[in-house]
Amino acid sequence: MKAINNLLITESLVDGKWISGKNTFDVVNPANGKTIAKVADLTVSETKQAIKAADKAWRVWKNTTAEERGNLLYSWYKLIIQNKDQLAEIMTLECGKPITESYSEINYGASFISWFSEEGKRAYGETTPSSNPASRIVTIKQSIGVVAAITPWNFPLAMITRKVAPALAAGCTVVLRPASETPLTALALGRLAQEAGFPKGVFNVITGKDSSGMGKELSTNALVRKISFTGSTQVGRILMSQAAETIKKVSLELGGNAPFIVFEDANIDEAVKGAIVAKFRNSGQTCVAANRFLIQDSIFEEFTKKLTIAVGKLKTGNGLKKDVTVGPLINKAGLEKVQQHLKDATAGGAKIRIGGHVIKDLFFEPTVLSDVSIQSLIAHEETFGPVVSLFRFKDEKDAINLANDTEFGLAAYFYSQDVHRCWRVAEQIESGMVGINTGMVSTASAPFGGIKQSGIGREGSKHGLEEFMEIKYLSFGGN
C-alpha cells in the first residue's frame, strides 16, 4: 500500500465514478484570498443519483461481515496515515488552520476509523428470558440504511470520519456533502477510500454550493434512512424539521457556548494552559471552543495577567509557515461577527487587555477582554473567533448558574483541585461533555455530543456505532 501521488481532486465521487457536473465553484485560501481549485458544483439531480447509488450498494454491503468491513476501514486508516503530508497541506490551504493543527486533526480523525474498524465487530445482540417456556426472545442489531452526512468546514477531515467510519462499520452506505468552503479534504478522503477497496456506491462524496437544495434532498428523500449533521443550531432545526416528513433517524451536533470556569483553588498555571487550548485551537473556530471564561473574584486579576502574557506569545499568520499558532478566520462573515462581539462588549464596559484589531484581511489579533457584562452578545452567542471573554463570579453556586444560563449544552470546562467540588460541579453543569482540569475532551473512545439546543445523538465510542443501527426483536415460538 503506497502513498498517492496527487490527492488534490476536483470531481465528485458518485457510484464509484468521478463526475464533474456542468459547473464549478472556487475554493479559496482564507490566508491570501487566492483560488486553490475549481470544484464540481453539483445539483439536486446529482444528489438524487448519489442516493440511488448508495441505496443499491446498501443491499449488498449490509450483508458483508463485520470483519470484512473492519478490514476495509483499517486499510483506509493506513492510507490516511501514509498520505498525511498531502492531506495536511490541503487542509491548511482550504481552511487556514496551522499545519501542526492539520497534522493533529489527521491523527485524531483517522483514530475514529481505526476505532470503528474494531468496534463494528462488537454490535452485540441479546437474549432475554421469556415468561412463556415455549418461546425465546432474541434481539439483533442491523444497519439502518443509507446515511446522509453533512459536515462543516472547521474540521474538514475529523467531522467526516467521526460520522462515516461508524456508519460504514455498521453496514450502512453514505452520501457525504462536505462544506463548500472545504471540499478538497473530503474528496481526498473519497479517493483514499476508493484505493482502500470500498465497493462502488458505498461511500459517495458530492460537492456543491446549493447547500439548502442539496440538504433538503438529503433530509427528505425516502431512500435516506438517517441524517447526521454538524453545524449551526439554526440549520439543524431546519434539517430536523425536513427529516420529520419521512421519520428519519437524526443525529445533530450543533452550536455551543462553552463555559470555562476557574475556581480559586485551581492550579492557575495549568488553567491558563488549558484556556489557550480550549480557546485558540483553529483560531477559536470550533464548536467546543471555550466562549465564556468565568473566573472567581479572588483570583481574577492573577489569572487575567497570566493569560494575557500567554496570549501575547501566540503567533498569527499563514498556517503553512513555521511556528504559526493562529491562522485566519474562514471568511468575511466570520470576521464581522468577531468585530461585532468586540464592539458590543467594550460598549458594555469590557476592557481590552491585549489584541482587539484586524491585522490584515481575515487575520484577527488574539484578544483578551476582561470584566465582560453578562448582558453582552458574547455571553449568549458563539463568537467563533480568537477572543477570550472574562467574567467574574463570587462562589460555586454563582458559577454554576452562570454556566447553565444558555440554551446550549455541548461542552464545558472547569479547573479545581478539590475532588469533592469536581464531582459536584461536573454533575450540576448542563452539558453533554465536561472537561475537568483539561481543555481537551474529544477522543474516539468517548461519546461526543451535546444536550439542550446543542443537538441530539452521540459520535465516537460504542454509542456512536449504535446511532447507525436498528434493534430488531426476534420472537421464537414453538413447543
TrEMBL record:
Classification lineage: Bacteria, Pseudomonadati, Bacteroidota, Sphingobacteriia, Sphingobacteriales
Record family assignment: Belongs to the aldehyde dehydrogenase family.
Entry protein name: Succinate-semialdehyde dehydrogenase/glutarate-semialdehyde dehydrogenase
Pfam families to which the protein is assigned, alphabetical: Aldedh (PF00171)
Active site (record annotation): E253
Keywords assigned by UniProt, alphabetized: Oxidoreductase
GO BP terms: gamma-aminobutyric acid catabolic process
Keyword presence, Nucleus: no
Residues covered by the Aldehyde dehydrogenase domain: 18-473
Superkingdom, taxonomy of origin: Bacteria
GO molecular function: succinate-semialdehyde dehydrogenase (NAD+) activity
